[in-house]
Amino acid sequence: MPARVGKKKARPVKSHKSFRSVGWTSNFLLVASLVATIDSGVWEISVRRYVRGFSDAIIPASTRQKAEAILAWMLDGPPRFESARPALLSARDPEDTLNHRELLEVCGSATNAFPNPSRSAGVPARRLLLLAPDRTTRHVVAKVNLGARWVGADATYRTFLKDETGNLLTKQDLQDPQILREATGSRPNYSAEYTYQRTALVRLAALPFRAGGLRTLLDRVTFAAFFFSVAALVFFLVVRLVLGWIADNRLRVPRFHLRANLSRATAAFFTSPEIK
After folding, report:
1. SS3 letters across the chain
2. What is the torsional sign of CA 225, 228, 230, 236?
3. More confident site: 38 or 108
4. C-alpha–C-alpha distance, residues 172 and 11, integer Å
């Protein structure tokens, strides 16, 4: 008699609990980054429209007049809001920095308020940190591009920095102590510690590698939250694809294929069933 052939026992599928936990965590983070991207993107668009409308309302024609008009508005503009809880205000939100008295009195947030309408009006502006010998920040000012030169503007005092003859001064000019005294001597309570001997300017051009279009992208983004949420979305999408490939081709872990199930559900919804 032929030998009885027994049925092969199916291999038990390993649960891979740790891998599944990683997969669900990456899914959650992917969804969270998608929600953050949508939220910050909508906020980015609304703030850019606000800043554009603000700059169009107060700015005249020439480049210098545009920057001076913004500084004049910061000095003598309409009454600002006063918050009962200033700590809750955002020092980087243009709507807060342009409209709250408490933020316009601080050098960091006052300087943050200046570049956004300047750039919206087509006037390039950058933040410049004045450093102490231990590399801590003593004061924050701005640099404005008026064509051939980048000149200094102190948003805290709402003014360009000029010498006795009224010439606008660059960072290199202001490194001369005599010229700096001429430019700031008439400013009340201007500290002698605010010097231009040590400065820092955060910009991608100073990085030791080519950033490609990253610099242009960041120049167009008002909030870092939008940039980082997009970066997180791309990162977790790649992680999700890698984990899916590992599950299908290495671990043989059964998983829910969203695209395949959506395709079947769509086909079932739009296809008429056969009635026998």
Report:
1. CCCCCCCCCCCCCCCCHHHHHHHHHHHHHHHHHHHHHHHHHHHHHHHHHHHHHHHHHHCCCCHHHHHHHHHHHHHHCCCCECCCCHHHCCCCCHHHHCCEHHHHCCHHHHHHHCHHHHHHCCCCEEEEEEECCCCCEEEEEEEEECCCCEEEEECCCCEECECCCCCECEHHHHCCHHHHHHHHCCCCCCCCCCCCCCEECCCHHHCCCCCCCHHHHHHHCCCHHHHHHHHHHHHHHHHHHHHHHHHHHHHCCCCCCHHHHHHHHHHHHHCCCCCC
2. negative
3. 38
4. 76
Residue 251 to residue 243: CA distance in whole angstroms? 10
191's tokens? 């500290």
Please return the burial class of 237, using the count of CB atoms within 10 Å of its CB with bins 0-12, 13-18 and 19+.
middle
Pairing state between β 199-200 and 125-131: antiparallel
Average pLDDT rounded to a whole number, residues 201-207 = 53
Q: What is the pLDDT of residues 72-86, one digit of tens each?
A: 877 776 666 677 676
pTM comes to 0.54
**How many residues would you count in the chain?**
276
pLDDT of 62 = 72
The pair of structure tokens assigned to 2 is: 């032929």
The overall average pLDDT reported for the chain is 75
Q: How confident is the model at residue 179 (pLDDT cuts 50, 70, 90)?
A: very high
